[in-house]
Amino acid sequence: MRPLPRNTKILFFAKHCTEPYVQIITVHETKQWQSVCSSEEEEPHGDDLEDLLLPELIDRSDLLGEIQCQKLANHLPARTQGNPWRLAYSTAVHGTSLRTLYRYLSSLDSPVLLVIKDMGNQVFGAFSSHPFRVSSCCYGTGETFLFSFSPDLKVFRWSGENSYFVRGHWDSLQIGAGGGCFGLWLDADLCRGSSFPCQTFNNQPLSSKKDFTVQDLEVWTFSSREI
Distances from the Cα of 104 to the Cαs of 96, 99, 100, 120, 145, in angstroms? Predict the structure, then answer.
């Protein structure tokens, strides 16, 4: 057996194999894996801020500052890390239409990050494991989560109580459900929305007003190729 490199841990031995499967685990990755067990995560403080990832934004965001991007990047799945952020849809550029949003996302095969600023200047949204689309049933995986800067970043991950991650209609977009409420809901014109506690994420309302008016909205994708 070859000697193992420094800073590695043996995760498991493959059957009938003399070599262990090894993976370099950084302090940052360990913190990420441990945090998945919590449905609500606060932003890092103190020395942890030094571990924040600096994502590469191909386009400029009108809703997220550099520090906010760093904090969000720290909570994204490993499969998105290292890929540039590309702006797939923006109400400021493409208008206010859910149908148009679906059209611009129709060719994507990567996760998406939905960012909303309401008329109270509060920023919040959702990470979806799959691009938004019209569907007859819910779709997505446990990677999906809700977040809110209020003003500190709070992340609400999958509770495991149900799998109502995302469902797209022509007249609305729904993220998280249960107990008769949606974690995040948007209308067909992307002008009005609501956010209530739901069983999927055991979240708090993302906006200071449970029924809110959208000021601007952006959808980001994590793709190594141009849209």
Answer: 13, 9, 6, 27, 22
